# Entry
Amino acid sequence: MSGPHVVVSRRTPGKALDDLIARYDTWVWEEDRTIPRALLLEQVRDAVGLYAMWTERIDQELLDAAPKLRTVSVMAVGVENADMAACTARGVSVGWIPEAVTEATADQAMALLLALSRRIVDGHRYVREGRWRDWSPLVLMGHDVFGKTVGFVGFGRIGQAIARRMRGFNMPILYHARHRRPAAEAELGAQHRDFDALLAEADIFVLILPLTPETHHLIDAAAIAKMKPGALIVNVARGGVLDPQALYDALAAGYLGGAALDVTEPEPINPDSPLLTLDNCLIVPHTGTTTIETREQMTALCIQNLVNGIEGRPLVACANPEVQARRG
# Structure
């Protein structure tokens, strides 16, 4: 196919990708692993559009390698992998998909919390290892969730979706965020707290905030020390908001009751990470959006962003709308 050259850094599910391939001169990295950096820089030399995963760095080096680049569409709810200042200065619009992942990520947070608190994975392992030979009142003791106070660190669209699910568990909802959320407070009965007050009051913490220089290791040893003994942590944000060494120390000492992580620092987690030795730490490989329906929707929205940018139309969701405004 002739026409604009487009690079796709990973094959994703759904018919929309096939439509893109039929529409443009499209190169797709077919291996199911992150594209090697050198290969990506080579392929974008003549590219007008780039469909990227959140694992690719969209930085000055890439922009310099791609002088014709007009639009980057990132398959993520955040754009921390993109140098937004550099993209904006170059006039490259950056598309993202903040709304596509909401419900699947909220489901994942609840699944992680329930699996952690009721030791579901431990129970499965217990049965598979042939250890279930009698009933015991002492085996696989977990934690109640119903009625526990939950503290959200970050309370945007996804956090509020998680909170809606938690209302069915009669959980008082507290949150700390950069801005008050009056509508969510009215709908969900959520109460705003300053950071230290949130740490002191909640039984369960849900981390669902962007990773920025200010939020990196926001949950560190000092923050954990202010939590209640036995508190649970669920991280469905980015691994970097939680200090892994501080988490390990608190879990290993029994100060925290447990942690469930959809994301880690680094990612993938190192196979020799001490967190993997702990029975009270549940880790899954960043699968918050891995449902057939959500991934197909993510693909479709990313490609719509890409096509719109290439053809001069406004992106469905643009992280640097000032670029679109300059284009008119």
Q: What stands out?
A: The CA atoms of residues 116 and 260 lie 6 Å apart. The first helix runs from residue 15 to 23. The two ends are 29 Å apart (CA to CA). The chain has 13 helices and twelve strands.
